[in-house]
Design a protein that fits this description.
The protein is of the alpha+beta class. It is about 45% helix and about 20% strand. It has helices at about 1-20, 40-45, 70-75, 80, 90-95, 120-125, 130-145, and strands at about 30, 30-35, 50-60, 60-65, 105-110, 115. A hairpin with a 2-residue loop joins strand 1 and strand 2 (about 30-35). It starts with a helix and ends in a 5-residue tail after the last helix.
Length: about 150
């Protein structure tokens, strides 16, 4: 009986550790998505705009910051419309089957979706064949979204 309890405890610890070890599906630093940039501003202002700590919203275990009350309201009403693809990880990196951090100034909007890249140089690689990269990234994201960075 003691042996079965020990086996159960070991199994429980292993499973719990696996569950809690999973990384978040949103790229964030100190719990803040997009390095504190306003995701809506990419669409409305056509440029990255730093959000304010006082205008924030928790979504998918990350804090999203906004530059205006209007942008905050737009995001709350439809976060999937404004949140970057692949959880804000580098779109090019995901198309290469790995997660990479992003630079908020390296971005594109394609078919009303926001894509971020690791750097302006990586964005250049991304823009050489965006349709193919999106297809690859969509396929890989399903497999890697819950993996460690």
């Amino acid at each position: 009986m003691k042996n079965k309890i020990s086996q159960f405890v070991i199994l429980f610890v292993f499973i719990s550790g696996s569950i809690f070890a999973q990384e978040k599906t949103i790229f964030q630093k100190n719990g803040v998505a997009i390095n504190g940039y306003d995701p809506v501003a990419y669409f409305t202002d056509n440029m990255p705009v730093k959000g304010k700590e006082t205008l924030s919203f928790d979504w998918k275990d990350a804090k999203w910051q906004f530059s205006s009350d209007t942008n905050l309201a737009l995001f709350k009403a439809n976060p999937e419309k404004y949140a970057p693809q692949y959880g804000g990880f580098c779109a090019y990196g995901v198309s290469e089957n790995h997660k990479s951090p992003t630079d908020p100034s390296a971005w594109t909007i394609v078919d009303e979706k926001l894509y971020l890249n690791y750097s302006p140089k990586v964005k250049e690689l991304w823009t050489k064949d965006i349709p193919s990269r999106i297809k690859k990234a969509n396929d890989y994201w399903v497999l890697i979204k819950d993996s460690k960075e």
